[in-house]
Amino acid sequence: MMPATDWEALRPTIVTAVGETLLMVGATIIMGGILGLALGVLLNTTRRGGILENRVLHTVLNVLVNIIRPIPFIIFAAALGPLTLAVTGSTIGAKSMIFPLTIASTFGISRIVEQNLVSVDPGVIEAAQAMGASPWRIIRTVLIPEALAPLILGYTFALVAVIDMTAVVGAMGGGGIGDFALSYGYRRYDWAVTWAAVVVIIVFVQIAQFIGNALARKALRH
């Protein structure tokens, strides 16, 4: 029979793990979100018939996204180890894992952005062009605002994926709630700790989904 879990002793550890997860998720969704938005806009606008049509650039970017996006994250993060070390000075710890998390999320988000921008009515863009609007102004005042609600839902999906990825990096010494579940739960056969980690992840995901849905509804009303 396994001894009872000493939650009092584990409390500082789980608080630290939650903080590390929030740090990784927050930094990744901000940096990856911005870079992914820029890349997604480029993918959309440089395609055939786009306002910045450039078939060579579009092909290069499209192939790059298609190569990187399907790679399982744990393999991608491991392969990126030398570059992570060069950039951050380490390959372990929450701060170091932000780098591969950001790179991976950038390519995932870019495809989400591109797919949502495709749904914008071409007539609206043509009307803006007819009025003499520059490509940058069309992107800023027409393209993104017209797709705002689905973009919010897409970013919510990406945020949930990032939460999942931060749990995965626990297996690579990345810290966070994944490392807590493995080190203090799975490896010690303490299933109560493992399930506590599961509950924390579920809470994170539910909060993210609730906020994302609320923001999308607000965007639709406007």
UniProtKB/TrEMBL annotation:
Nucleotide-binding recorded as keyword: yes
Entry keywords, A to Z: ATP-binding, Cell membrane, Membrane, Nucleotide-binding, Transmembrane, Transmembrane helix, Transport
Domain of life: Bacteria
Primary site of residence: membrane
Single GO term (MF): ATP binding
Family from the record: Belongs to the binding-protein-dependent transport system permease family.
Name by which UniProt lists this protein: Methionine ABC transporter ATP-binding protein
Annotated source species: Dermacoccus nishinomiyaensis
